[in-house]
Amino acid sequence: MPSLFGKSLSGVKVRHCKNTADMPAVRMPIPDKVVIPMLQHMGAPCNLLVQVGETVTVGQKIGDTDAFLSVPVHSSVSGTVSAVIDFVSANGDKCKAAVIDTDKAQTPCPDLRAPVVQSHKDLVQAARDCGLDGLGGAGFPTHIKLNPKNLAEVNTLVINGAECEPYITCDTRLMLDRTDDLLAGISVLQKYLGVERVIIGIEDNKPQCIEKLTRATASMDGVSVRTLRSKYPQGAEKVLIYETTGRVVAEGQLPADQGVIVLNVATTAKLAEYLRTGMPLVEKMLTVDGGAVTRPQNIIAPIGTEIRDLIAFCGGYKEPAKKLLMGGPMMGLVVVSDDYPLIKNNNAILAFNQKESVQEPETACIRCGRCVAACPFDLMPLELDAAYHAEDTHALSLYKVNLCMECGCCSYVCPAKRHLVMSNRLGKKLLKEKGI
Ligand code: SF4
Ligand code: SF4
User: Fold this and answer.
1) Could you tell me where in the chain the CATH 3.40.50.11540 domains are found?
2) Given this model, what pLDDT does residue 11 score?
3) Is the pLDDT at 408 greater than 70, yes or no?
4) What's the CA-to-centroid distance between 284 and ligand 2, angstroms?
5) Which ligand is nearest to the CA of 365?
6) pTM for this structure?
7) For the structural domain made of 120-277, what CATH number should be given?
8) CB crowding 390-409: b at 16 or more within 10 Å, else e
9) Average pLDDT, stretch 385-408?
């Protein structure tokens, strides 16, 4: 099989569990309060622009910064700021968060206007003003992605509709139910990025999406749909670029170095909606599923809604949740409490029951090599695991722990149930702490 870094482009077959794929998203009522962190994206946290006691409106900017890698944060509700708290996210990031008691009126911010976009520069500014980051889960600020140094050499836009994580189906619903916004987003991106072709990559376990988008794009010049094998992690940026264009984004390169920009379907549709309405990113479509949830479904909720309110809207817990995940089972983050708020790049809440949460004990590595065979980036997870446990920073660097995208393929196939992703996550942290 062809390769990303010279050997084999691997990945794993996972159970799809797309239980909610036939369920259009339902908008949930506004909760009594929301908690809006100032860091919901990859990069620097925003400075809070509101104070306790201040009233806010929907779409009002409540956080921003001059830092390069960041996007503003907006209020998802109208109401009153009742507290400012120190917040620690599920991945350990620290920032301030605004607690807003809602008035349920959802009064829109009076300053909102649909932006006038007549150039690439306008488009980049609009993406920033929208507070847009990678809604597929990566959280990378969209305006930076749209503005690579070598824009003139970028000729291909890849739209990520792979949705390869088990359980998650909100992108499936978006492709089926918000096709117009998705196509409008593609058109505006095609125009102002100046790309020759746009490829929408969709896994073959979503035949309805493939059929609908193939028909809908038939008359769009340069736009096509590419059917991908259902194999995790097809939606990982470098894997998707290879599968849709045949181009290899080498170690140390960015997609733009290969003439490609990749955006997720939800990011693309939200950009179009913002250009149409002027309402920034304040709500999220996500999948709520898992054996502990009474009524799994896709929902639309204000950003900042606490997990317990999301679950309550889905009928509550039908049995104790033994494992709560923000995101899918492969790359999602475990949270210890259901008071964590929904953030921009969170596309699923999974509440697993006892049976689904059983974790077999770790045993010694038997050097079977399955983790190496499964890694899409030709890494050596067994060596990284050993290096982390030995606190061997030289070996962690040598075996390139920083290239690990934490896709989870290695842990998934490991017969010894080694916690390989966790070792890599902590290994990266160790290098960072040592300044390596
Ligand atoms: S898959 Fe597990 S047991 Fe096999 S080599 Fe990798 S770490 Fe060791
Ligand atoms: S988690 Fe990292 S090491 Fe493991 S398969 Fe994915 S990229 Fe490779």
Assistant:
1) 120-277
2) 85
3) yes
4) 28
5) 1
6) 0.94
7) 3.40.50.11540
8) eebbebbeebebebbbbbbb
9) 96
